[in-house]
Fold this sequence. Notes:
It holds the Pfam family Methyltransf_23. The chain is of the alpha/beta class. The protein has helices at 5-12, 23-32, 55-59, 72-81, 118-131, 183-189, and strands at 43-47, 64-69, 89-91, 104-110, 132-145, 155-157, 160-165, 178-181, 194-203, 212-220.
Amino acid sequence: xxxxxxxxxxxxxxxxxxxxPWSQLVSLCLRHTPLASCDREFRVLEVGCGAGANLPFxxxxxxxxxxxxxxxxxxxxxxxxxxxxxxxxKVADFTKLLPFESKFNLIxxxxxxxxxxxxxxxxYLDLAYKQxxxxxxxxxxxxxxxxxxxxxxxxxxxxxxxxxxxYDSGPFSGVGNVHFFDRELIxxxxxxxxxxxxxxxxxxxxxxxxxxxxxSLVLQK
Length: 221
């Protein structure tokens, strides 16, 4: 399915415009990768970077920051905001292409690939594996769990029950596809990587219908 056009519309309407680095992602990067101890040639790519919340965090440690998103609108804003590496901020569907010649020491995916169907996520993981240096890491957060309160509320795809859509209210309203994972599917999709870290978290807010549940993982080539 690839990039959902809904996200370009959301950005144009000034929604999902987070600007602060996500603490869980920061923690996983510093705990499981040599980002903080390497020289400033450490190469980082964020896929589905959105409004660029995490990019200043990476700039703290390296001059080799790259990013991509499927939204032309958000990329144009980022190129102006991060003019010092504007050439490394690109528009692309990361389930089909990672348009960079160099390989990366770290690829980061914070709640990006989760808005694709299973086949597209599998294609993306293959591309990420090829684009990583030997020993490099792929960090993924916010892969929604099948224990999430909204899993049963979405309309499943005919041949892919893990991918849901049709939400007219709540956190997934207007975002297109939402993918949910169980442990078995994660192990299957990531089998060519080494699984360094796998974490499942559940958050309860005002009843089961609002229960949040998601996976975070650190993979290594």
